[in-house]
Amino acid sequence: MSGMMNLVGSSDQENDGWRKGPWTPQEDQLLTEYVKLHGEGRWSSVSKCSGLKRKGKSCRLRWLNYLRPGLRRGHMTPEEENIIVELHAFWGNKWSTIARYLPGRTDNEIKNYWRTHIKKEKKSSKNQEKRRIPLEKKRDQEVITNSVPQESHVVIDEPPLLMKQKSSLTRLLSMDFQYYNNFPPVLMPQENIAENSWSDSTCSSIFAMEGLWDGLWNVDE
DNA sequence: AAGCCATGCAACCGCCGGTCA
DNA sequence: ATGACCGGCGGTTGCATGGCT
């Protein structure tokens, strides 16, 4: 903690010749020009080529979280919040993975949002949740029963946690979440789940969401 | 008006995995 | 095979700001 104190503060703060703390508009401009010329990556050479006295990591973070084109700034929409809640229920704190489903949002932003907004809400509505859970469980059970045919390759001795995860994603794909108009085709939630633990129908459900995502981003902020 | 407190967010750190010489 | 380097990721910190007393 005390270590952090001497890092941030004055924007002129330096450490071994490296600048730390808030970025100035001039630094932003230098970084932007560097990326325009050299593209993303090779962050370690930014300081050499651009004259920035920032470490590569710092440059990368600044670019990805703030300067990169196409970033969506401002409040999360209720739709985005719901997506975050559902994906977090599935992946946990895999912020970068979750961010891939929210174009224009960064993992840092989502992480911050989760900690400040959603976690707080969950805490405050804990009592309400307790009463809601039995209903959710029942609905989840119904969705699983309906969407995963008996003859598919479902792992039989599935651990309870996995069942919970599958339930969450299945619900995400269900019509409860009509704003999932276009499920990004890039990523499949295979990281936590054995390849053959998903039924063919579930996988095709996911890919069936392709081509509809645009609708979400037209939602007014 | 001033002080305190809670909240939001930008930015840093350490760890880890991938790549390459 | 291995060590150095780099980038990605999640966790954490502290500043800025706004609301409350």
TrEMBL record:
Q: Which region is the signal sequence?
A: none
Q: Where found in the cell?
A: Nucleus
In its UniProt entry, what is this protein called? DNA-binding transcription factor
Q: Which Gene3D superfamilies match?
A: Homeodomain-like
InterPro entries from the UniProt entry: EOBI/EOBII-like_plant, Homeodomain-like_sf, Myb_dom, SANT/Myb
Gene Ontology MF, one? sequence-specific DNA binding
Q: Where does it primarily localize?
A: nucleus
What positions does the domain Myb-like occupy? 15-67, 68-118
What Pfam family is a match, any one?
Myb_DNA-binding
* Record region (Disordered): 1-22
Q: Which organism is it from?
A: Lithospermum erythrorhizon
SUPFAM superfamilies named in the record: Homeodomain-like (SSF46689)
Q: Which UniProt keywords apply?
A: DNA-binding, Nucleus, Repeat, Transcription, Transcription regulation
Q: Any idea where the HTH myb-type domain is?
A: 15-67, 68-122
Might you report a single GO cellular component term? Answer: nucleus
